[in-house]
Amino acid sequence: MKITIMIDNEESYLNDYISELVEKIKKRGHDILFISYPEHIRKGDILFILGCKTILSKEQLGLNAHNLVVHPSKLPEGRGSAALVNKILEGENKVYITLFEAEEKVDAGYYYFQEPIIFEGHELSDEIRYKQTMKVFELVLNFLDIYPNLNPKKQVGKSSFYSKRTSEDSELGIDKTIREQFNLLRIVDNKRYPAFFLYKGYKYVLHIFKEKIVNKDEKV
User: Is 134 helix (H, G, I), strand (E, B) or coil?
Assistant: First the structure.
């Protein structure tokens, strides 16, 4: 099949790993093209729209038989931006990923897969994004391996919407405990939107890392 993958967001975490997915699709014998701009969409069989900011036009969606998006929520719950990190912030450690058909209405198309990622509750941003990436790639490859024997399902249930998070959402409250704000510390990005707090007219920026504590009776 003639397959295109588009990531038009240069800050998307998927960019760090996309070459792995492209190589796996090549090994399956498909004609694969990776693009960064909507104007480079070609006529083909499947367009995977991953990590994108652009809402495609009806004409752009008409170039391929299938236009597939992978969204980090159990649609129709959690439409919009930053659904996965918002779920982590809310204390959830079971977060769903949905692979669905793109339509002109955002996050509203029929879906093919809706599967969970299980977190242990200690993962920081890089680990969360890596697990998310691996699940995205798994769903993409599952679609290709099963196609065309798929059963699209209509989204049902009450919809909800998350707004885009900004760097200002990484602010810590100086009067709150670390325990109270631990999930916020888990989702901040040390480079793009680090944790910070304001005090005495200054902004203090924090970077968070972790090390496993090994007990003396535990084998390294």
Answer: helix
